[in-house]
Amino acid sequence: MTPVFLLGPTASGKHQASVLLAKRLDAEIISVDSMKVYRGMDIGTAKPHGDEVALVRHHLIDICDPSETYSAGRFVADAAAARREIEARGKRALFVGGTSLYYKAYRYGLFEGPPADPVLRDELIAEGPAALHAELSRVDPTAAKRIHPNDLKRLVRAVEVFRKTGEPISSRQSQFDRPKGEARVVIIRRADLAARVESRVGLMIKSGLVDEVRKLLARPWSKEGRAAVGYREIVDHLEGRCSLEEARQAIVRDTLRFTRRQATWFKTFSDAVAIDGAVSPTDTVDRMLAIIQR
User: Is 123 a member of any domain?
Assistant: First the structure.
């Protein structure tokens, strides 16, 4: 059965639309989100609430303790298992989220380079994104064009691969330039994203984001979770480096930067169809169904 992917930037309204779409398709939702996998990280990740989960079964949410490290490789394995389980029940898999790396790993294949070198990575992180992007531009201009100058995680990996192997990561990734397998892929876009992000962040703080972070700090918490947008800024507030209002403003700023990086990723997905989500959820689902049923 052909899977469906509904992608979109943070705060684009994709999850509300996905619940309606899942009901129309008799589908179950597989979350494509690197932070919704963590138990206890609820408000800051805008996890689906009880009513939504009751309407449609969700997968790959709350499957890890916050102390664990989750990866694209683990996502590929978990998503494949969830899809098999869903299809074995005669239903359709509807992948929903905004973690483009996970989507690409699942659809295009998982790049297996040299294992991570913690010592080298610490050195690269200390050099900073500007220096890493400059180095990458010299040794692998193809990768440098693909990776945003502020995307520290991907810059570190690209430079790490070159220093460990002497080969540019772009040449090793060339086999992953095309998606594997049939799928229907829809991307939601919103011209009003900035206003939606502003409203979303305010609602998260009113809903108890500060208390959520306080509880997470009281237990083992992975670097990945602690550094996530919406969490690191509240950590700064709780540790006395900024006021709550300054933290709120920082979350809005950092979220909008993140949505721009997401948009850059989405442009690389050749088989995706973009639609305007700034209509009613019902109209959005009708448009998606028209694309899916072509």
Answer: yes
Mean pLDDT of 155-178: 82
| pLDDT of 113 | 77
- Residue 178 in any domain: the answer is no
Residues 33 and 83 in one domain: yes
Q: Please give the pLDDT value at position 173.
A: 63
Instruction: Choose the weakest-confidence range: 24-38, 57-71, 184-198, 259-273.
Output: 259-273
Question: Which CATH number characterizes residue 125's domain?
Answer: 1.10.20.140
In a domain, residue 51? The reply is yes
Residues 125, 190, single domain; the answer is no
In this prediction, residue 150 carries a pLDDT of 87
Number of domains in the chain: 2
pLDDT reported for residue 51: 82
In a domain, 177, yes or no: no
| Reduced 3-state DSSP string for the chain | CCCEEEECCCCCCHHHHHHHHHHHHCEEEEEECCCCCECCCCCCCCCCCHHHHHHCCEECCCCECCCCCCCHHHHHHHHHHHHHHHHHCCCEEEEEECCHHHHHHHHHCCCCCCCCCHHHHHHHHHHCHHHHHHHHHHHCHHHHHHCCCCCHHHHHHHHHHHHHHCCCHHHHCHHHCCCCCCCEEEEEECCCHHHHHHHHHHHHHHCCHHHHHHHHHCCCCCHHHHCCCCCHHHHHHHCCCCCHHHHHHHHHHHHHHHHHHHHHHHCCCCCEEEEECCCCHHHHHHHHHHHHCC
Residues 212, 106 share a domain: yes
CATH number of the domain that residue 246 is part of: 3.40.50.300
For residue 174, the model assigns a pLDDT of 58
Task: For residues 256-274, give the mean pLDDT.
Answer: 92
Check: pTM over 0.90? Answer yes or no.
Answer: no
